[in-house]
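QA checklist item 7 of 12: single-chain prediction sanity check.
[x] sequence parsed
[x] length recorded as 84
[x] structure emitted
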Amino acid sequence: MNKRYVAPYLEDDAVEALADNFELAMDLIGRSVCEKTGAHMRSIEALLGQAAFARHSAQRFLDEAWPHIRARLLSYPASHDSRA
């Protein structure tokens, strides 16, 4: 068992709130890729880290897919302005 996956030890409401963070992170990732910006990196990483406590699938995403997506986002400017 991954040390970070602790959902069985949390209250249902806490698990649900943390799991919602995964959906928020996915939304920010999608927006960041579409806008070609690295501006949301810290928020995405914080949301994914929190979601990993509640969902095994979020932990797997964080471990396996996120490093590749992160590298892609790092190649974009850290600006919200897509016209730059």
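[x] summary fact logged: The first helix runs from residue 12 to 35.
[ ] second reviewer sign-off
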